[in-house]
Amino acid sequence: MNRVERDEWLGCFLTEMEVSQLEGVFVSVAPDRTFRLLALLTGWRNHVARIESELDHLDSDTTVWGVYDLIAALALRSFIARGVGILDSSSFEGFKRALDDVDSRFRGFTEGDDAGVVRRLDGGDRPSGEWWWDRLPRTGPIRREIERIKLQSSEP
């Protein structure tokens, strides 16, 4: 998404003043590494849109994303959760609406990961409240890759 598309999408949820305030909110993602909270939100939106757009692609398409791209998207969502904790109330409502928009889209094409494959592959100790780590696409290349991983892990 280019800058104009980003601004247009954010404008559906946030005023220019709120965007300006949020541009100053940084989230630590690693020692000595921070990202703007709005960049993380935009990244989450872009990842969700790409994963959704590839649901009908064939596994033979070498450009499609795989399970580790899903994990990268979920890590972005976790960074956003960390950033929400530092938001002040004046900019939270619009941000929350924008986040809910992306989260709803993600929920729309995913289902529960009852086997916990995504959490196992991530290997991280993710808080149980981070619901996005417990979902996977219902269809598509990522889902088929996860099914192959589940089969491999159940073989003796």
Give a quick precis of the structure.
With about 160 residues, the protein is mainly alpha-helical.
Explain how this protein is built:
This protein is mainly alpha-helical. It is built from seven helices and four strands; from the N terminus they run H-H-E-E-H-H-H-E-H-E-H. The radius of gyration is 17 Å and the shape is globular. It has a two-stranded antiparallel ribbon with strand order 1-2. Helix 2 (16-22) packs across helix 5 and helix 3 (37-53) runs parallel beside helix 5. Strand 1 and strand 2 (33-36) form a beta hairpin. It is 58% helix and 10% strand.
What is the residue-mean pLDDT, rounded to a whole number? 91
Cα distance spanning the termini: 45 Å
Q: What string gives the helices and strands in order?
A: HHEEHHHEHEH
Which spans have pLDDT < 50 for at least 5 consecutive residues? none
Which helices and strands occur, and which strands form pairs?
Blueprint: H1 3-11, H2 16-22, E1 26-30, E2 33-36, H3 37-53, H4 67-84, H5 89-108, E3 110-112, H6 117-122, E4 135-137, H7 141-154
Antiparallel strand pairs: 1-2, 3-4
Helix pairs in contact: 2-5, 3-4, 3-5
